[in-house]
Design a protein that fits this description.
- With 219 residues, the chain is α/β, with parallel strands linked by helices.
- The protein has one domain: 3-Layer(aba) Sandwich (Rossmann fold), CATH 3.40.50.150.
- Helix content is 35%, strand content 25%.
- It has six helices and seven strands; from the N terminus they run ααβαβαββαβαββ.
- The protein has a seven-stranded mixed beta sheet, with helices on both faces.
- Strand 1, helix 3 and strand 2 form a beta-alpha-beta unit.
- It is globular.
- The termini are far apart.
């Protein structure tokens, strides 16, 4: 059998591909200036505990289950997971990583779109108020799906656009999409059944809405 040599077109495209990746990396590096710390707040702590309890009723995670907290902030959810007997690891960028480590949490500095974990590592991927920080959420969601075990659970919570809080105006928010678009993206990466709910409350700026999506990876 004779092997066909690579065409000149494919050879010449390699440097161009590398240049595209360099430009993407430079773009992402520029966005590091938009990162800010996320200190705990009574509202977010309350919602975290409430939604984790709800998730455990829907999809109980066994003791010792491995959890990935994407965008872990200063460790509010990590504390909840440890108290429940789970084995959590958090990822974040910026000063929050050091805050978490000082509290004894296992936290890595890692971009939410490039998860350096093997396929099928986690029983639960928790992504609360982090996905809106992705510049390409479809790819980010596909990474979350990849690192989940078959039968594992993904929890995503995002802010709604055009509320009194105007989350779309936050300079570190790049993907504040409508609810139906989030449902579509989550389904397209491989979650056929999605349970979602509106979290409505009032802040000092007026009424606000978060959307919570819970889904299980097919076994």
């Amino acid at each position: 059998m004779t092997q066909t040599p690579a065409s000149s077109a494919s050879i010449s495209s390699a440097p161009a591909s590398l240049d595209r990746y360099r430009r993407l990396d430079a773009f992402l590096q520029r966005l590091h200036g938009d990162i800010y710390p996320e200190p705990p707040s009574p509202l977010h702590t309350s919602i975290t505990r409430q939604m984790f309890e709800r998730l455990m009723r829907m999809h109980p995670i066994p003791a010792g289950g491995k959890v990935l907290d994407i965008g872990c902030g200063q460790g509010v959810a990590l504390e909840v997971f440890k108290a429940a007997g789970l084995d959590p690891v958090g990822i974040t960028l910026g000063p929050d990583a050091q805050v978490c480590r000082a509290k004894g949490f296992n936290v890595l500095e890692m971009d939410l779109s490039f998860l350096d974990f093997a396929d099928g590592t986690f029983d639960l991927v928790w992504c609360r108020h982090a996905l809106e920080h992705s510049v390409f959420p479809f790819f980010t969601l596909s990474e979350m799906h990849r690192v989940l075990k078959p039968g594992g659970v993904l929890y995503v919570e995002v802010p709604a656009p055009d509320t009194s809080c105007n989350h779309q105006n936050n300079p570190n928010h790049y993907s504040v999409l409508c609810q139906s678009m989030w449902v579509q993206l989550i389904q397209r990466v491989g979650f056929p059944k999605i349970n979602f709910t509106d979290l409505k409350f009032t802040t000092g700026m007026g009424p606000d809405v978060y959307w919570a999506f819970t889904q299980q990876k097919p076994g």
